[in-house]
Request: fold
Amino acid sequence: MPFYDYQAPEGVEGCPHCREGFEVRQNMSDERLTRCPECGGEVQRIITGVNVVRSLWRSENLTPERLKRSGFKKLVKDDDGRYVDATPK
Ligand SMILES: [Zn+2]
Reply:
């Protein structure tokens, strides 16, 4: 089951719990939370970097150009076992 991050949106004071953001384990099919379980204030689901990376790697059309556009570097291991930046310039 994936984790989802929730946080009080900008402008909502919330409580320490939701101001900092919190993780909830949910099924993909579960309804997303709209209220903080602590204070009942408004929260929104935030997309974490991890999820973005995962969806990128799932892509079948993962090309160096797309990596570069997304701000990633392509690292290639050379014969000496060092990683060399092979991102297209
Ligand atoms: Zn709260």
Notes: Helices lie at 16-20, 49-58, 64-69. The pocket of zinc ion is lined by residues 14-15, 17-18, 36, 38-39, 41 (CB under 6 Å). The longest helix spans residues 49-58. The mean pLDDT is 81.
